[in-house]
Amino acid sequence: MRIKIKRRVRTSSSEQWALFDADVMDENEQPTNIGKADVHYDPEMVFVTMLLWSEFTETLDETTVQQVIDEIMDEITEPVGAAGDFSLDFFTPSLKDYKFQTSLEDEDEWDEDEEDDDEEPHERNGKNPWN
Q: How far apart are CA 68 and CA 106, in angstroms?
């Protein structure tokens, strides 16, 4: 399993990431979306709400899920020099129950300011910004 991230939004103190398994391709031959993370940076701690889709976690044992979380948290804290301490809210909802809503008339506006990085996978299906 190779965890890859795609930053969706960045502010001065937070980020929103889509999470992928680059070793497993979806029906569009893109890395499989396994979840998302909302990250808030504080000088002393990183606060994270992480969703890993149940379709991904239901095939893994608890130790493997913890390894995935640890890998993602390392990616969140180490490269940016953020505080090593973190508070993590972790959920495993079903992707089929996930709903994305926007007030934008044209959903493509979501990607206008996005930085492209060829190393990070991304493809939208028009309904879910995490694909």
A: 34
Q: Collect all residues with Cβ–Cβ distance below 8 Å to 20 and sequence separation of at least 6.
A: 3, 4, 5, 6, 31, 32, 33, 34, 121
Of 24, 11, 76, 13, the closest CA to residue 50 belongs to: 76
Q: What percent of the chain has pLDDT over 90?
A: 47
Low-confidence ranges of the chain (pLDDT < 70): 79-83, 106-131
Radius of gyration from C-alpha coordinates of the chain = 15
> Is 47 within 8 Å of 82 (Cβ atoms)?
no
H helix runs in 6-81, sequence order: 54-57, 62-77
pLDDT tens readout for residues 42-73? 888 889 999 999 999 999 999 999 999 999 98
Residue 67 and residue 129: Cα distance in Å, rounded?
A: 25
Residue 113 corresponds to which tokens in the numbers above? 């300011």
Whose tokens are 């995490």? That residue is 130
Q: What's the token pair of residue 120?
A: 């990070």
